[in-house]
Amino acid sequence: MTEWAVWDCVQELDWQKIAIDVFKNFAGYRPIWLLSGDLGAGKTSFAKALGHWIIPEATIQSPTFSLIQEYQNNQIHFYHADLYRLNKVEDIYELGLIELMDSGKLLLIEWPEIILPIVPASAAIWLKFSYTGDPTTRLCTLYLPNEANFGQNHLNL
Question: What's the burial of 29, exposed, middle or buried (CB within 10 Å: 0-12/13-18/19+)?
Fold first, then answer.
């Protein structure tokens, strides 16, 4: 994986700026966004900021209990999944996650580690959210598959 960008996030408005930057650069050809990091590191804050920007009228909620939330308006259709509660990779078939990954629609996946072996590498970006030494600041690091990995079918992190 190649590190593409690193952002500091100090306030909620920073999440929206980061989300807009990522959307403008990758939404058209890398629709699977893997969001990983510790609890409270910013995954859901990022997803909410993005959702409010692309569909301002939507109420963006964490899909922790529903596992997948769907949002759409006349211009865009996207999904937000949270796999924290999944125990085995087979559970994704019941959720229809394979079909969503193949749909070409924007798909944000929190806690994606359980499905990494089946994520199509050429369609994905990986956003890692982390704490810094400053309790008011989070980091968001965006990774892309290496050019050498484009021939491979799936991510190997």
Answer: exposed
Distance CA 140, CA 143 (A): 10
Angle of helix 12-26 relative to helix 43-54, nearest 10 degrees? 70
Decide: 3 and 142 in contact? Cβ < 8 Å: yes
Rounded to two decimals, what is the model's pTM? 0.87
Instruction: Quickly tell me which residue has 């403008």 as its tokens.
Output: 24
88: left (phi over 0), alpha (psi -120 to 50) or beta: beta
Write the pLDDT tens digit of every residue in 64-111.
Answer: 778 999 998 888 889 999 999 888 888 888 888 999 999 989 999 999
**What is the phi-psi region of residue 144: left when phi exceeds 0, alpha when psi lies from -120 to 50, beta otherwise?**
beta
